[in-house]
Structure formats: C-alpha cells, structure tokens
Amino acid sequence: MAYCAPSSAGPFGIIVGGSGLVGGSIVYHFKKWGYDILAPNSKKMSLANPDDIASYFNKYRPDFIINTAIAAIDANPKLAFDVNYVGSINLAKVAMALKIPYIFFSSAAVLPPGLNLREEDHLPLSADITNYAKSKLMSEMTLRHLGENEGLDYTTIRLAIVYGKHDHKIQGFHRMLFAIADQSMPVLLTRPRVYHSYSNTRKIPHFVRHVLSNREEFSGQTFHFADPNPVELAQLILTIRSYLELKSPREVYLPLPMARFGATCIQHLIRFLAKIGIKTRMPPELMFLENFYQSQTLSCEKLQRSSFQDPFPEETVFTRLPDLIQYYLTRWEQLNLMTSKTQDFFDPQKLSEEFLRNPAQLLEAIHERKLSPFMEPRFNPSCGVRKSAATRSHHC
Ligand SMILES: NC(=O)c1ccc[n+]([C@@H]2O[C@H](COP(=O)([O-])OP(=O)(O)OC[C@H]3O[C@@H](n4cnc5c(N)ncnc54)[C@H](OP(=O)(O)O)[C@@H]3O)[C@@H](O)[C@H]2O)c1
C-alpha cells in the first residue's frame, strides 16, 4: 500500500490517544506550532489490535510517534495488558523499524508512596499491583530493554496527577473537583500533611517538543514531568471549596479505616442494585483511596538539570484553579451532570435563564437586536486558503 507523506512543511507526527486529556493538549499545541499531526482514534487504530497498527503504519510514515493512549483505569487484565503494554510495545517496534523517536507516557502509579521519588524508583513488578500500574511498569521496562539491546530511540515521560482543561472523562484530579463542586464530599478524605505532585497539561506539549528536538540528550531516558513544588491535598481541597464558596467538605479528616469501610458499603450497595437491575459502578478513583492518605511526590531534579526551560514557571495547580473551575463548572452544568444547585456566576449574561424560562421574549429581543449572542464574522477576502479534499486526504 502506498504511504502518505505530510502535506505541510512541519515534521509529521502520529499521536495515539490524541482525544484524551494529555494527548488532546499535545495535538492542539503541535498543530499550532505547524507540525503535521495525525491522531487516530481507537476506532481507526486500536492498540488492542496489531493488524490495525500494521495497516495504519503501512499507510503513514511519520517522523515520530507519541503514545498517550490508555485503556480505562479500571480495565480488566486483558484490556490493560493488550492496550497499555502490548499496544505500547507494538508502537515501539514500529518506531524501531522506521528509525524514528517514540515518546511514551507513563505514570506515578508505577512508584511507591514516598517523598522526592526519583526516576530509578519503581514498585516491584508483582501480581499485587493494579493492572494499570503493572502494564505501565512492564512497558517502561521493555522500552528500556529495547533501547539498550535493539537501538530503540525512546523517551518515557512519567506524569503525576494531571490537571488541565478538556478532561471529558472526568478522571483523577477533575473527579475530585467534581465531587467537591457537586457537594458529594462531606468531609476530607485524607489526613493532614499528605503531599502529592501535579502535572500541568499546558506545560506537557512544550516538554514533548523539546524532547523531540534534542534526541541526544533525551533518548533512552525516563523523566518525571511535574510541577516542582508538591501540594498538600487538604489545602488543595479547601482552596477549591473556598473558590466555590461552599461549606463542604467540612474541615474534618475522615480516618482511613472509616473511608475503607465506606467504600466497602458502596461496593455492597452496587452489587445489590445490580441484582434489582440497576447498573451502576464504583468511581474508579476509589481504587486509589489509599493514595489520598499517603504522600507521593516526584523528584524533578533530573528535569531541572536538563536543558528544558519551564515555559510558565509561575503556574501551579493553585494558580490554574479559577480558570479550571470556571471551565469545568460551566461544562458540567451544561451537561446537567451537577446534582446540586447551579450558580448564576457561570452565565453572567443570564441568557440561559431566559432560554429556560422566557424563550419567546428572548427570541424577540434577539430579533429586535436588543441583544446578540452571536459572533460577528469578519473575513479578509485576500487571506485564507481553500483546502482541497486531496490535501486533507490523510487527515482523520
Ligand atoms: N490523567 C492523569 O491524571 C494521568 C496521571 C498520570 C499519568 N497519566 C498518563 O498520561 C497518559 C494520557 O492519559 P489521559 O489522562 O490523557 O488519558 P485519557 O484522557 O483517558 O485518554 C485516553 C486515550 O487513550 C485512547 N485509547 C483508549 N483505548 C485505546 C485503544 N484500544 N487504542 C488506541 N487508543 C486508545 C482514547 O482514545 P478513544 O477516545 O478514541 O478511545 C483516549 O484518547 C496515559 O499514559 C496515562 O497513563 C495520566
């Protein structure tokens, strides 16, 4: 089969997992910087299906591959193994065959609890760790093996808890934000002085681009990519609460045994509901319940010693909170996900209230040009290109 070359001048990359939280931000930034990017979704190329991978790369010959794909965090062993491990290594094999760099995203889930953990640290590979952690750790180890023995040009980027816009699955940090905003966290599910590291999706693409442009320095290496200062979980929760002007969660620390007991009760309730035909599931984050009670901070020393310069050194999860809260609350309210009372603040023009209660009056006001919720398109006739179907043929 003939393969497609990139249509623009920029390097041509394939980002697997490009519809996700991390992948989406990389796709967006790389396109903005003029890279030619393809981001096949899992229907077009599933990492669980080696034939998909083979036929996709028979068609496209990129200059690099970035893998940010993961199966659901609570996926069964088969899916976790097939997608997170076998799929990741199959992509590495493609990269090796094409002699191009492979950027793999891993997770702090491979690390034990502790402070200032380094890139060399990891959990022992055993049956006891979660399927997610096991598959990530195995991938890291096989990539190192392929790098050392078969010349794979790879970089592993280990992320901490990720924060940023466009987490449409509402996972991890954003699940916690949701629980607070929805007032379904009556007390603090942690204990004092529990610290974690956080990774910012606005900074990740800058690092990936730097890593790709400096292969000599970054090839065959693992890097922690997180904000330099760890964050106390209780302080973060209480700061979110204060931005939202809520009374809960109250500043009461729920002891871990009670939290475990609560989780077990929920599990029993879910099983009971299933018996009477009501299908519901445990929030997958509850499998990380213990982590809310244990510090885990990542050393960023190696990152800081590297040639990479943080593009937004002043930015932290705290400085991003107002923007993230505004973004997610607007989105969750619009999707009717919030069970608590919505707040007027997020619709300053109050047009949605009019839409809800007085649609006829709203329409009249619009037609009489008393208000306009529309954009005013202004185009310069001498600018812009009309892309033909042919030049876009390789886009998904
Ligand atoms: N989010 C965090 O807090 C966090 C923390 C530490 C590390 N990480 C790491 O960062 C990376 C990205 O995570 P994320 O939070 O951005 O994940 P995400 O939002 O859940 O996105 C997962 C992506 O994987 C794709 N995918 C799922 N199954 C696939 C399959 N069988 N074949 C191909 N693609 C498939 C999905 O594509 P479709 O939608 O098309 O199925 C989606 O684009 C992962 O390696 C993760 O381990 C994330």
TrEMBL record:
UniProt source species: Desulfolithobacter dissulfuricans
Domain NAD-dependent epimerase/dehydratase: residue ranges: 14-177
InterPro entries found in the cross-reference section: Epimerase_deHydtase, Lipid_A_modif_metabolic_enz, NAD(P)-bd_dom_sf
PANTHER family (UniProt xref): BIFUNCTIONAL POLYMYXIN RESISTANCE PROTEIN ARNA (PTHR43245), NAD(P)-BINDING DOMAIN-CONTAINING PROTEIN (PTHR43245:SF23)
Name the record gives this protein: NAD-dependent epimerase/dehydratase domain-containing protein
Membrane-spanning segments: none
